[in-house]
Protein: site-specific DNA-methyltransferase (adenine-specific)
Amino acid sequence: MTTQDIVQKLWNLCNVLRDDGITYHQYVTELTYLLFLKMMKETGQEKGLPKGYRWGDLEAREGVEQLTFYRELLLYLGTRGSGRVQAIFANAQTMLTQPRNLKKLVDSIDDLDWYSARTEGLGDLYEGLLEKNAAEKKSGAGQYFTPRPLIDSIVHLVKPKAGERVQDPAAGTAGFLIAADRAIKAETDQLFELGEREQRFQKRDAFCGVELVPDAHRLALMNLMLHDIEGELALGDTLSPLGAGLEPADVILTNPPFGTKKGGGLPTRDDFTYPTSNKQLAFLQHVYRGLRRGGRAAIVVPDNVLFEENAGAEIRRDLMDKCELHTILRLPTGIFYAQGVKTNVLFFTRGEAGKDKGNTKAVWIYDLRANMPAFGKRTPLTREHFAEFEKAFGGDPYGKSKRKDQGAEGRFRRFTREEIRARGDNLDIAWLRDESVHGADDLPEPEEIAAEILEKLRVAMEEMEGLSRMVEEAE
Structure:
């Protein structure tokens, strides 16, 4: 039985819980509690759990007694468990109200082919479950999940190395951190080529992150644990003083949430030069300020980060001064949960010590958006879709490989800093005519068109708010 088969079996159990009125996202959280207990048993790590509060203790009970004990177990582990166990079960509550549903879940999990699951990797099984949840629109979990083919492509290009500190300030379910760890392990024979001290660093200190949403944080902790990563993953807001206190990183890989700062207020960071309520612009400032000298980053941002005026233009200028912004990838539409939001990946390197001006001489832009299929369930995004971009990018993680401008008919073009300056530092540059939309039959879904209109209105409102603040300050 493959990991995919096991994931499908687990996902089908969601139908069992319809009677309890449980949503997909609640189901995955519920499964996380139960799978954690079972996986601790399967991997021989139950010594990390208090005696009397383990899988066997839950399995031995039935009916109302089992459900009552399960509630007690969640409370106990969330308040008296060891470090990471307590974090995973913090404020844990079951949504189950019917004992027969809990028994069905426990029995079904127990009956899975755990030999195959262990062989293929329990971490891969859990990743598959998170991906299934993200793909289900009704779950609302897509906002915490970046498509794995995109993550793998970015990690392949940025090439995090053993000994480097890797950060994700908007970790979601920890996809970037796990992919970076996987890549480093593949390069070092599962870390066996490293000395004992270096191995300890990779396991405990190499990876760190922050996640704002408690449920996503819980899923991320479980994900990291199953991949044997002990790095710090804080529950909190990177756009608060917590983010300012993060240790500088050699590599930052992230996909910050879309939209404005919750409640429309400004980030509470006092180290940002350019205050803004635009979350992505604030995260962008965090990323380039949080890199060590010579460090490299890749960040997923919506189009408005490339063209927004006022603070947006100032932040882009600051970015191109302090860093070498060497590559922008214009992503296809439809690959994220938020329909209508067009996105890009910015790849850049922090300037060396004493060099905070004029680091960007030219920007290479790859258009993977025009004349691409409409991605979704019928046409899933795969790693193969990034093959030509990866070839054009080259093997140097700092963007120094020999590159060729493909001209007006090609997807890859070079724009000098002078050309960008003449555009008012607007980086939203497109040159290919999109032939993929020919008629009414090829138009996006109505909700996608509506979402795009709403996104443009949101940006316009932010511009108006920014202008209003400037007027108030001038008075």
User: Anything to note?
Assistant: Residues 3-132 form a domain with the Ferritin fold (CATH 1.20.1260.30). The longest strand covers residues 291-302.
